[in-house]
């Protein structure tokens, strides 16, 4: 009879090799585990929502309520549409809207075309692109007040650099900020120089994403510079162009800093009075916060309607 083997059988080894059964699941289930893992992310998200609600949603709701209220010696009362009637009956109301629309049109002609042209030039260069990008974006890094005061010095009728240049070539000097016909154009030029750097860099990034094969194919077809821009560049960057067009319209309709610092706000014969400056006057000069909120509400409705129309048209084109 053979001696029993001391080597454990395969069944015994398999039984001892099996892992112990899992314990009971932790309390709270998968949601609690996920929440614990993402506690930091949830905390940052909640903080961002609270900040956005406090600094954005609450002022909008408060403005809507103020547009239908009147504050008299600390007592708040509902006045319905009286604030809107006050705004509509103000002679400066329609002038402010005309000036704002004029500034928007001029700012789009210069502020929309000039950055795009600058981006086209930089994109065609082979050397020095980084230096030129910095040079173009430099005005954006300047404090707005400092940039506006620089242009106020340039426009000075006595010792301003622009009049010195005009006089050196035999041209008559101009009253840039004192002439009602030139004051708005002067404000637009200053605003374009101050703000075109960001748009130019965005255009440049979009241009660098256009495939070079399209330009080569256009050259083979005999297309010149302007035909390549019209048939290749603009269609390939249409989304960026339309988005920046919307953003520039919204920004220019809310212009305040440039006319306020260059011409004192109203300008000669009210030529630079804008809607936002009129809101400032109602609130801080006339202490009529209800009228200021009503005018701000009108501007909000106009820009919201324009944005909604833009989104609808853009969606229809994409479909």
Automatic annotation (TrEMBL):
Compartments, record wording: Cell membrane
Key word Transmembrane present: yes
Feature: compositional bias, Pro residues: 18-28
Membrane topology note: Multi-pass membrane protein
Major localisation: membrane
Transmembrane segments: 39-58, 101-122, 134-155, 182-206, 237-257, 289-311
Stretches with biased composition (Polar residues): 1-10
ABC transmembrane type-1 domain ranges (all copies): 97-310
Positions of the UniProt region annotated as Disordered: 1-30
Domain of life of the organism encoding this protein: Bacteria
Record key words, sorted: Cell membrane, Membrane, Transmembrane, Transmembrane helix, Transport
InterPro entries associated with the record: ABC_transporter_permease, MetI-like, MetI-like_sf
Similarity comment text for this entry: Belongs to the binding-protein-dependent transport system permease family.
Protein name, as recorded: Carbohydrate ABC transporter permease
Annotated organism of origin: Streptomyces rochei
